[in-house]
Amino acid sequence: AVTRRRRTLVLRLENCLGRSMVRSLAVFLAVLLSPSLRSADHPARPNIIWIMCDDLGYGDLGCFGQKVISTPNLDRLAGEGMRFTNFYAGCTVCRPSRLSLWTGKHMGNTPIWSNAGYQFKPEDVTVAELLQGAG
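Below the sequence we write its predicted structure tokens.
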């Protein structure tokens, strides 16, 4: 039953996100859920903290080498968790890029192209909803 549920989740993710995004997400989740990385004091399911900032560059945080601006709390989180060094922006403006990230859809498959005029609809499935469905 668990394997069937996982297979269903992967198929839903592939339909929603596309294969390359699913592969990246699968590697990310495999590392988080790996039994060898868990100890007795860690919960069975990982906590995922998703921080989004507009116009934040790679070198703007101390954990990536910033020396002028102090980011001690984010640096501590990065030191205790995972840091990603390969990034992609779905669009050149904020709102469509956020929608692309939240839904996992390529910009060509989203209904907005600018910062105005779109409200989330009930049929818009987000990555958070898919993860919530997995427990």
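The CA atoms of residues 70 and 83 lie 17 Å apart.
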